[in-house]
Amino acid sequence: MLKYPCLVLDHDDTVVQSEATINYPYFCYILDQFRPGATITLQEYVEGCCNLGFADMCRTWYGFTEQELVEEYEGWQAYIVHHIPAPFPGIQRIIRRQKEAGGLICVVSHSSNRNILRDYKTHFGILPDAVYSWDLPEHLRKPSTFPLEDIMEKYDLSPAQLLVVDDMKPAWEMASKAKVPIAFAAWGRKDYPAIAAEMRALCNFTFDTTEDLERFLFE
Fold first, then answer.
1. Are 16 and 85 in contact (CB under 8 A)?
2. Residue 202 belongs to what H/E stretch?
3. For the whole model, what pTM was predicted?
4. Sign (positive or negative) of CA dihedral 148, 151, 153, 155
5. I need a surface site. Which of 54, 191, 199, 210 has the fewest CB within 10 A?
6. CA dist., res. 108 & res. 143, Å (int)
7. Does 77 score more than 90 pLDDT?
């Protein structure tokens, strides 16, 4: 019997290693296009996404308009077609074991449906049972509780039957409001001690490696 019938996985920097290699470099490019002369370090980018969320970071720090956010997203979608991030070592075993045991894999992420599905097909040879991504209207995206509430309604699950696995604070906000347990995917935040310390304090569980999470779930 599975400890958690449904794993709710983040995508970027929980399942795949995309922040430093894909998302940040593209944002530096788009920032130069929209706000010539403006710069952002990787540390600032990560902290902004964690504390504000990507869209509000763009609005608050750089005054992005809603049209610029749309254009940024469209450009990013074109960019990621040719840039496929590598998965974190060991995450494939967790996904496969969960599915083989009859469990659900749902993705709640600020990535797009297209690249989430591509990455799962490419790296794992399976598709998630449900995806709640940036393609949703903004008010339904994480940290909204809509994804978790929809999963629980669709699959007739209680909050205790879900486990959110994520590396960022918006996921904790979502999970805590929905009374769903959350595990901090610390393997994606090794270079960010302040973020890691806050997430360790907030989340129900912390796992430093994918192997630690695998043992917790299945052994």
1. yes
2. helix 193-202
3. 0.89
4. negative
5. 191
6. 10
7. no
- Residue 80, pLDDT > 90, answer no
pLDDT surpasses 90 at 53: no
Question: What residues contact residue 70 under an 8 Å CB cut-off, 6+ apart?
Answer: none
What is the rounded distance in angstroms from the CA atom of residue 93 to the CA atom of residue 50?
A: 27
| Strands annotated E in the chain | 6-9, 16-17, 86-87, 104-108, 130-132, 162-166, 182-185, 205-207
By residue count, the chain amounts to 219
Cα of first residue to Cα of last residue in the chain, in angstroms, is 11
- Find tokens 């997203």 and name the residue: 73
Residue 61 scores a pLDDT above 90: yes
- Kindly state the average pLDDT of the residues 191-196: 91
Angle between helices 42-51 and 169-178 (to 10 degrees): 10
Phi, psi of 107, deg, nearest 5: -110, 125
Residue 85, both tokens = 């991030």
How high is the mean pLDDT of the chain?
95
| DSSP annotation string for 74-87 | HHHHHHHTT--PEE
Partners of 132 in beta bridges:
108
